[in-house]
Design brief:
Order of helices and strands: EHEHEHHEEHHEHEHHEHEHEHEHEHEHH
CATH architecture of the largest domain: 3-Layer(aba) Sandwich
Number of domains: 2
Radius of gyration: 22 Å
Largest sheet: 4 strands, parallel
Number of helices: 16
Structural class: alpha/beta
CATH topology of the largest domain: Rossmann fold
Shape: elongated
Distance between the termini: 16 Å
Strand order of the largest sheet: 3-2-1-4
Oligomer: single chain
CATH class of the largest domain: Alpha Beta
C-alpha cells in the first residue's frame, strides 16, 4: 500500500513546535476510519539519527523508519538503471516508489526526488514582522518559501490568517493553498505525572503562570518581565512566572541573555523562573498545575502551546494578534496588547486573585470535549489534501 513519507523538520530538538506539529497530524490521522486513514512512514535519506528520534512519541503508530539510499553494488546499480529505463522514472523516484512512498510531507528528503509533495508553510513572519528577523533571515525565507510553493503539489497553511498573506504573496498559486488548523493530541504520558510533584521537583511555588516558548525575540518574554516589575513596584511581589522552552536562538541574537539581564536589573530572580527544556510529560504537568498560560507573542503562525492549553481546558492570556483570535475565538476575554506591560500586569493580577492552581479536572474534561471533534476535522482535512496531491 502506498504511504506518505513524513520528513522531519526538527532533527536536533531545536524547533519543538515543528516536531509536535508533525506528531499531532500523525495522531489525528491514526484515529480515522480505515477508509480515510493514510499509511504513514517517516522517511530518511541515507541515515537515521538514532540518538534523537523526532518521531519517538508516535513510533508505536507509524512503526520503524524508512531509510533509503542508492544501491551500493555494481549489480544493484545496473538493476536499478534497467528498472528506471523501463518505468520512465526520473531522479530518485524509483527508490522511493520501491519503498511504497508516493508523496512527501512537509518537505522533500533530498534533491531530485521527482515525487509529489505537500509543503507546510508555517507563517509569514518575514513579511509581517521583518523587524523581528535579520535581513539575511528575511531573504532566506522569501527564497525558500517561493521555491517550495512553486515546486509543491499543494501547500498547507496553519491558519486563515496565513492564507490571506499567501493570497497576497503567491496569487498565481492560490489554487494550491489549503488550511489545516491543527490541534494537540494527548497521550498517556500527559496524565501519568503528579503536577504538584513535578513543581516541587523544580523548586517551584504552589502558584504560578506558565510560558512555554522558545527564547526568540518574537516570543516577547521581556513584556512579562516588565509587567512583573510594574507589579513589584506597586507592592505585588508574590506573582510568579515559570518558563519552559529551548534557549536556542537561530537568529543568533542571544535573546535569553537579554531576558536574564532584564530579570536581574529588576531583581525578579525569585519570581521569573526559567527552567529550560523539559521532558514533554513534565511540561504538560506544569501547564496543568499553573494558574494560566501566558502567550504574549509579537507574531505567531498557529501556537502549539495554545492548542495544548485548549486540550487541557486551561485559560490563556494572549496577545491580540489576529491569528490568536482565530485560534481562541472572538469571544475569548483575555486578549492584550503585546506592547503594553501595564495592561498585562493589571490582567495578570486580576487572574491571579481569581483563580486557583490546577489541575482542574472539570476544565480538562471540557478541553477533551473540544478535542473530540477537532482531531477528526484535522485528520480528515489532512487526508483529503494528501490524496489531492496524489491525484
Amino acid at each position: 500500500m502506498s504511504k506518505v513519507g513524513f520528513v522531519a523538520v526538527d532533527q536536533d530538538s531545536k524547533w519543538l513546535g515543528g516536531r509536535y506539529y508533525l506528531q499531532n497530524l500523525i495522531k489525528c490521522n491514526s484515529i480515522l476510519e480505515a477508509k480515510s486513514r493514510l499509511e504513514i512512514s517517516d522517511i530518511w535519506w541515507q541515515t537515521f539519527p538514532k540518538e534523537s528520534d523526532p518521531f519517538l512519541e508516535v513510533r508505536p503508530i507509524i512503526g520503524s523508519p524508512t531509510i533509503v539510499d542508492f544501491p551500493k553494488s555494481l549489480f544493484g546499480r545496473a538493476k536499478r538503471n534497467i528498472h528506471r529505463y523501463l518505468s520512465g522514472y526520473q531522479g530518485a523516484r524509483d527508490i522511493f516508489a520501491k519503498n511504497n512512498i508516493d508523496v512527501f510531507f512537509p518537505i522533500v528528503p533530498c534533491e531530485n526526488s521527482y515525487t509529489p509533495y505537500v509543503f507546510w508553510l508555517p507563517d509569514f513572519q518575514y513579511l509581517r514582522r521583518p523587524d523581528l528577523l535579520s535581513q539575511e533571515n528575511c531573504k532566506f525565507y522569501e527564497k525558500y518559501f517561493r521555491y517550495n510553493v512553486e515546486k509543491a503539489s499543494k501547500v498547507v497553511l496553519s491558519s486563515n490568517d496565513a492564507k490571506q498573506d499567501f493570497t497576497k504573496v503567491f496569487p498565481e498559486h492560490i489554487d494550491k493553498a489549503r488550511v489545516i488548523q491543527f490541534c494537540s493530541i494527548p497521550d498517556d504520558n500527559w496524565w501519568q505525572l503528579d503536577p504538584s510533584q513535578v513543581a516541587a521537583k523544580h523548586g517551584l511555588p504552589d502558584r504560578f503562570f506558565i510560558v512555554c516558548n522558545q527564547f526568540t525575540k518574537h516570543k516577547n518574554y521581556t513584556i512579562l518581565v516588565k509587567s512583573l516589575s510594574h507589579l513589584r513596584k506597586s507592592g505585588q511581589d508574590n506573582i510568579s512566572v515559570v518558563c519552559t522552552g529551548s534557549h536556542f536562538d537561530h537568529r543568533k541574537e542571544n535573546y535569553i541573555e537579554q531576558v536574564q539581564s532584564l530579570i536581574s536589573d529588576n531583581h525578579l530572580e525569585k519570581q521569573f523562573l526559567i527552567l529550560g527544556m523539559l521532558p514533554r510529560s513534565e511540561q504538560i504537568a506544569l501547564i496543568r498545575k499553573s494558574i494560566a498560560v501566558l502567550q504574549p507573542s509579537l507574531f505567531e503562525g498557529w501556537s502549539t502551546v495554545i492548542e495544548d492549553a485548549k486540550t487541557l481546558g486551561k485559560l490563556v492570556l494572549a496577545s491580540n494578534l489576529s491569528v490568536n483570535q482565530e485560534q481562541l475565538g472572538i469571544d475569548h476575554d483575555y486578549y492584550l496588547d503585546p506592547e503594553d506591560p501595564v495592561s498585562w500586569a493589571f490582567v495578570m493580577q486580576d487572574v491571579w486573585e481569581k483563580l486557583k492552581p490546577g489541575p482542574d479536572f472539570v476544565q480538562e474534561q471540557n478541553g477533551l470535549k473540544y478535542l473530540s471533534e477537532a482531531k477528526i476535522n484535522c485528520g480528515m482535512k489532512f487526508s483529503q489534501i494528501i490524496n489531492e496531491a496524489r491525484a
